TrEMBL record:
Record-given protein name: Polyisoprenoid-binding protein YceI
Location of the Lipid/polyisoprenoid-binding YceI-like domain: 40-204
Entry-linked SMART domains: YceI (SM00867)
Organism annotation: Gluconacetobacter liquefaciens (Acetobacter liquefaciens)
Record has Plastid as a keyword: no
UniProt keyword list: Signal
């Protein structure tokens, strides 16, 4: 084998190995709902985000998010109605990528993070709506006020995380709230009252 042919073989082998590795990585999690394990899960905070979007003066839809979420999920795919979800969201984690605005949102005029450091969501009912979807109804407490909220949840995937070896299940959920109903009324209606929530949730099996 010539040096040129040897180099070509090495390159081809690297490409094939890379393709196999990429395929293996793509197979870490499966979207198959029948593969989801029953049990008690804990929020994996590093890859869980609660995003929010609202109208800014009608010129743009402005977004931010909260991180550092904690909580638990009790899940039995065979009896989805028995599922329960309880999460806590630290208000101080609010991030819009604009530091000045983040400070304003933490102030008493908005979320008042000093007096109300956490938002919480506790489910009261889960109704399956499809093979991998469900409506999660519950009570959202924000700014010291509690209101009923329904989230539309969709399974993203489940499997063993190759990095920490933890069995993980992930969901995406969406919903809307009227922030004025929680006493957050600053600049309504110039700054939108309707807030769209988008949750990327990752949960690790505990038992």
């Amino acid at each position: 084998m010539t040096q040129r042919h040897f180099a070509t073989s090495v390159v081809m082998a690297a490409l094939v190995f890379g393709a196999v590795s990429q395929a293996a990585a793509q197979q870490v999690a499966t979207p198959d709902p029948s593969a989801v394990k029953a049990g008690t899960y804990k929020v994996e905070p590093y890859h869980t985000q609660v995003g929010f979007t609202l109208s800014h003066l009608g010129f743009s839809n402005f977004s931010g998010f909260f991180t550092g979420v904690s909580g638990s999920l009790t899940l039995d795919p065979a009896h989805l109605s028995a599922t329960s979800l309880d999460v806590t969201i630290p208000i101080q984690s609010v991030d819009t990528t604009v530091p000045k605005l983040d400070g304003e949102l933490k102030s008493a005029q908005w979320f008042d993070a000093t007096q109300f450091p956490n938002a919480t969501f506790k489910s009261t009912r889960v109704v399956q709506t499809g093979a991998n979807t469900a409506n999660i109804s519950g009570n959202l407490t924000l700014h010291g006020m509690t209101q009923p909220v329904t989230l539309k949840a969709r399974l993203i995937g489940s499997g063993t995380n190759p990095l920490d070896k933890m069995y993980t299940v992930g969901f995406e959920a969406t919903g809307t709230i009227a922030r004025s109903q929680f006493g957050v009324k600053q600049y309504v209606p110039l700054v939108g009252d309707t807030v769209t929530l988008t949750i990327a949730g990752a949960f690790e099996l505990q038992q």
